[in-house]
């Protein structure tokens, strides 16, 4: 059963108690930020735009800020912990491996957003405060969400620097591609423990005023061996979308079970990146060494019968192993990378939308079977 729940984009914006402008940054804690920055520059076509570290007076950590259009990633590693923050980062990487610690959200008023969230029961991580430099002032606050993930609330309306105070502009690590591979963060997916999905859906409903966009349960999201359940929450303008997954009881270990085991608890499973040309992006990323999930040729034998005509010919989709799906609003093209670190945890999705605001429901079975093949190769199915 698939259900599209109450959601009329934009209608509640004027009365929104927790308005957002969009995703500000996806922040990763990693073992070696310099090497991560190089990988995402060369393999994902991102551009280094800002840096913070010993050369800028920060002795504890090194942080590299990369951008592609409106998408921003921050990679931080510990040099020598000297504060609670540095100790937390080092412990997080040791326990979880490289992963997302912060889904930062840009808001028009960080103080108001924080006060509303705390008033609705959110747990405070950092109280509202100002940070300043010659480029202006940024107001920051942070609340906790699933696992050790947080949402930093960022009001940068009074700031024109490269990222945040304490960071300096940086030159690209490699020559940026002539055409960016993606231009925005489409959605960020969280995995939570069995029985906790509805708890966190309720958190976003209550604490941030997000509404339930879609849900996928039962046969929608199951194979012969494994199953999971998923619900999608989003802000009123659909600029910030957070699908939330939990495992379901099945014959064998699901991809969510595998993630929870190797990540050591709940966390961000994958980040979907919006592209205007998935064919060019996938070709370039493959050439740079990015590994994508494989899809059997049989998937494409009948694809045209139900997905209809798309911008990309079926033969090209087959060649590049790109998936397609259509709903009442249009169609989308998507493909998923394999995990981008040694642990089978965080991965990425490339998605090209043509009207559809869905998440590839028609591809769930093919996708999960592809993931199961990788799980079996790792001995984790």
TrEMBL record:
Cofactor(s) the protein requires to work: Fe cation
Details of cofactor binding: Binds 1 Fe cation per subunit.
CDD domains: HPPD_C_like (cd07250), HPPD_N_like (cd08342)
UniProt keyword Iron present: yes
PANTHER family attached to this UniProt entry: 4-HYDROXYPHENYLPYRUVATE DIOXYGENASE
Family: Belongs to the 4HPPD family.
Name used for this protein in its record: 4-hydroxyphenylpyruvate dioxygenase
Native source species: Streptomyces laurentii
